[in-house]
Amino acid sequence: MDYSTAKQAIKSNWQFILKTLEIQPAKKKVNSETSYICPFCSHGKNGDGLTFIPQTNLLKCFGCGYTGDIIDFYIKTQNVDFKTAINNLSNLLNIEISEYKIKKSSSTQIDYSNYYLKCIENLNNSCKAQDYLSKRGISLETAQKYMIGFDPNWKSPSAIKAGKNPPESQRLIMPTSNIHYIARNIKEDLTPLEKSFCKMNEGKADIFNLNSIYEQDLVFVTEGIFDALSFLEVGYSALALNSTSNVKLFLSYLKDKPTSCTLVICLDSDKAGSQATRELQLGLDDIGLPYISKSPYSGFKDANEALVKNKELFLLEIEKIKTQAALKPDSIENYFDSFLAEDIEQFKKSFSTGFNNLDVLSGGIYSGLYVIAAISSLGKTTFASQLADNIAQNGQDVLFFSMEQSTLEMVSKALTRSISLKNGICDITSLDIRNGNISDEVKQAMSEYRRNVGNKLSIIECRFSATVDYIYNYVKSYITKTNILPVVIIDYLQILSTEKSKFSSTKENIDNIVIALKRLSLDFKIPVITISSVNRANYLTPIDFESLKESGCIEFTADVIWGLQLECLNNPLFEKTSNIKEKRDLIKKEKSSNPRRIELVCLKNRYGISNFSCYYDYYAKNDLFIERTSLTSLKSGRKR
Question: How far apart are the C-alpha atoms of 565 and 601, rounded to whole Å?
């Protein structure tokens, strides 16, 4: 099959591809067509969502505004390039492409400069277009200044180029560059189909009034052109992204050519706008540019609605923000106005560990950096894995980055643990399951584990090669796609690397990793839990900060540090400097016992009690920790 025919075949199988990608149907249909839950903004869970428009063969989201064909959709959801998408989709549909080559188009972008001049003249002669602008609070003078024009007989050039015959419509022509504009339908009482094409892009997407960030000290960053025009109408500088999907484009401009102005992020107050705001904040933090997130809309959806319905209040709110940003953008007043409520809401979303004794003393898990440290054979990975299962079963997403163990190992151990928790300590081991010994008991455990945990826990096999940058980008992509803030667990710290690793000592490398993980927790306001080994010199002594001295940074940077140790280390024998053989024999005996008696020691806790112990029975063959509640105690009054 030739390339052109194959591409058309792929597009015609859009429903099968969506099903393969597990895109779920939306609650409602649009125009009798099946709609789906949009993976970019989750629109569709309570109404219409991502809908196929047969007239254009495009998928359209009525929430975030995403528009594209099934190939573009695959590229964005799977984060691949065009050629990879064609190859993957062809294989999925068993399509064999003969003489397959993708050539870059040699045609240049159309220069619309002369067309804009004609449209500006049309606007001057059209009472209807001027009336439309007036109802939106925009004067003819402002429109002309920013080259807004009018085409009474507009037809989509891209549709015509594709061999179609689109209907004419009366449109405002709003340029962002000489090769891109947005055509907005000004007809009243648009049909549902017309509404879906109310705003159409022609040419290569760009940012409206981008140059303002290099000419002004303060620029409001808005979503739509009418929002930017609303600020410009009342004498303040603004730009428009034109779509929340253009955040990356805007950030790329700023990376190439940074600005000294302060940006005020004030996107629409809906879900897509909130998600894009967060993405923009993270990007600006990476670049190191000043910004504040503050909306002057006073309860209205966007700037244009605020301008039309209460211009005086709109002006008052803008002036407050301008004064605040110009004088002291990092003041406590600005923090109270812009960030405090959001930070509190996010911080108070603590998660249960699933261990009652630990929850009582720790208060659960908050956003921040957690370190679980221990010598080998004490079940660090098992404890973290059981922690992940507990959190996932309570409905919270968990990303578990496994450096050493495969997903099969992790899941088989979880199944063994589940069986023992339900039916008591059993003889079924994870190795039995990996060898294919699947009894009815195991099958039932599989079904229950899949139902209770399966959709909430992700195990990412890193095979000793993960870097902090890889984990950061994975988490960022996960949050962008799902709009869910996960708990992140990393097994384990000493295997991770950074770009600086090859030029650093072991201690410097771990310090850099710890700082990067702390940044990960701060940037996304999420819990990040990492496992850490301890110094071999401390194998015969109770765990303390000295055990972590390979990286002094752990002690100072981590928010919470838990150490796992054999309970026998509290024996007076280990207070002596001699008796090395006797100590080793006791350690060996305790390691071989079933269960092993384990003490969790809290060495540091920024969120509450910082000096306590919890006690567990660790059944290594069953990959299971059982808490001993009666022994949970504070160090100052330990009950033994």
Answer: 8
